[in-house]
Amino acid sequence: MTIPPIEASQRIREICTLAPIVPVLVIEDVATARPLAEALVAGGLPSLEVTLRTPAALEAIRAMSDITGGHVGAGTLITPEDVRAAKAAGASFGVSPGATDELLAACEAENLPLLPGAATASEAMRLLARGYDMLKFFPAEASGGAPALKAIGAPLPQISFCPTGGVSPSNAGSYLALANVLCAGGSWVAPKDLIIAGDWAGIEALARDAAQLRKGA
């Protein structure tokens, strides 16, 4: 039984409304995964995206999947094999930089709610026609930033976005102020140096600051 795209988008919407920022995580050492997740959730960021860019990523998802109050997703889903591996590792949702018919079909077949990427009105319209109305705007800054996303929202008000790519504390507020933005994805809340140092209190503090970002901030 496949998950209908409209139902998948509703689940993604629920995940995206839990906090204004979704941490985008690149995990090199699986031993850091659980304390990292605990620090981010404690700081008020329960929705976590672990990118499949490192050999440790799937094991990291597995280690983080049962964190109390956390929702762990797999990012950088490119192929159906990625989808199946992410689901087997315990991911509760997926994120992709773009979308192909094969990727969408795999997520639907695996009952893995997907936040598919789109950077243009045509891409967004194509996904909407399939039933997806909650999308990732990527790469956000390189695609024109908040002004571009605002412009896309004018003719397509039924689509909501999570902008990711170049989002930082200095520009997150401009995205969150948009009517068609539910949250934004950012990596600054889990900097590599703090992860290597095991500075979980420092990461929790960054998460707490990010969790205070609100629309119009």
From TrEMBL:
Its EC number is 4.1.2.14. One of its GO terms (molecular function) is 2-dehydro-3-deoxy-phosphogluconate aldolase activity. Pathway: Carbohydrate acid metabolism; 2-dehydro-3-deoxy-D-gluconate degradation; D-glyceraldehyde 3-phosphate and pyruvate from 2-dehydro-3-deoxy-D-gluconate: step 2/2. Belongs to the KHG/KDPG aldolase family. It comes from Falsiruegeria litorea. InterPro entries: Aldlse_KDPG_KHG (IPR000887), Aldolase_TIM (IPR013785), KDPG/KHG_AS_1 (IPR031337), KDPG/KHG_AS_2 (IPR031338). It catalyses: 2-dehydro-3-deoxy-6-phospho-D-gluconate = D-glyceraldehyde 3-phosphate + pyruvate. This is 2-dehydro-3-deoxy-phosphogluconate aldolase. Keywords: Carbohydrate metabolism, Lyase, Schiff base. The lineage of its organism: Bacteria, Pseudomonadati, Pseudomonadota, Alphaproteobacteria, Rhodobacterales. Homotrimer. It comes from the Bacteria. PROSITE patterns: ALDOLASE_KDPG_KHG_1, ALDOLASE_KDPG_KHG_2.
